[in-house]
Amino acid sequence: MVTAGNAIVGALRDDVDRLLAAEPDVRADAWDSVHQMRVATRRLRSVLRSYRTLFEPSPIAEMQQELKWLADLLGVARDAEVRAERFAALLAAHAPQDEFARLATESAAAGTSKTAGNGYVPGTTEYVRTELVGAERDRYARAHANILDALDKHRYHTLRHRLSAWRTEPPLDAAKSNQPAAEVFERILRKDRKRLRRLVYAEPAVSPEERVELLHDIRKGAKRLRYSCEGAIDVLGSPAKDLGNEAKRLQTVLGDHRDAVESREAILARADETHATGVNATIYALLADAEEIAAGEALAKYPAAAAFVSA
Q1: Which residues does 162 contact at the CB level (< 8 Å), separation at least 6?
Q2: Residue 235 CB partners (closer than 8 Å, separation 6+)
Q3: DSSP letter for each residue of 112-167
Q4: Per-residue pLDDT tens over the stretch 176-220
Q5: Which among 107, 43, 119, 118 is positioned nearest to 74, based on CA atoms?
C-alpha cells in the first residue's frame, strides 16, 4: 500500500526541485526566470495548503509564511515584467506609429506640441511607449535588484536549507500520513473542488463591483485545485489529470480577464498622472478600450470554463 506520506513526499520533492533550480537563472536575469521561480513558490505553497492535514501544523505555518514572503518579492518584478510586455504588444497592435506620427506632426505644425522630459513629443507612440513600457521596465530592474539582495540574505538561505531538508524528510504527522494515499488524495481533491464550487455558485448574486474580486478568488481557487490535482496524478492517475486540466482552463480564462482589467486600470492611471491631452490622450484611450474588449472576451469564456465544477 502506498501511504499518503510517501506520496506527498514525492510531490513535494518535485516542487522543491523546481523552486531551487530556478534560482541560478533568476540571479542571471534569464528570460522568464522570475516567473518560473514565482510559479514554483506559489505552487509549493498551494500544495502545502491543500495537503496540510498530512503535516505537523507549526512547521507548515512557518513555511507558508516564508513562501508567501518569497512569492510576494518575486511578484513585484513579475508583475512589472508582464505589464511591460503587455503594453508593448498593445502599442504594436493598436497604436500604429505612422498614423500617430502624422497627427503629432500636425500638432507640432499648429504649435500645440512640446518636447517632454523623456525627449519625445507628446502625441507620439514613442512618448507613450516610454511612459508605459519604459516605466515598467524600470520597475522590473529595481525589483530584480531587490530579489538579488534578498537571495544573498540570511532569511532566504534559511528557507533554502529548510526546503532542501524537506525534499526527503518533511514534518509529517505520523498517524495521518500513514493512511492510504488514494483515499486521502481523493478526499482532498473533493474538498478543493467543493470550495471552488461554492465560489462559482456565489458569483451570479454579487454586485458588479464585487464581481471582479470574486472572479479573482475563483481563479485562485481553480489554481489551488489544479495544483492539488497535479500533486495527485501519480496516485490517482487520469481522473486527477483531467480534473487538473479543467481547473487550469478556468484559471487561464480568469487570469486573462484579470490581466486585462489590471492593465486597463494602469493605463488610465498613467494617463491621469501625465495629464494626457490631444493625440496623447487618444493613444491612452485606444489602449484602454482594447483592454476593456479583451476583458470582455475573456469573461465570455468563463461560463463554459466553470461548468466542470457542477458536473
Answers
A1: 63, 66
A2: 2, 7, 181, 182, 185
A3: -----TTSS-TTSHHHHHIIIIIHHHHHHHHHHHHHHHHHTSHHHHHHHHHHHHHT
A4: 999 999 999 999 999 999 999 999 999 999 998 899 999 999 999
A5: 43
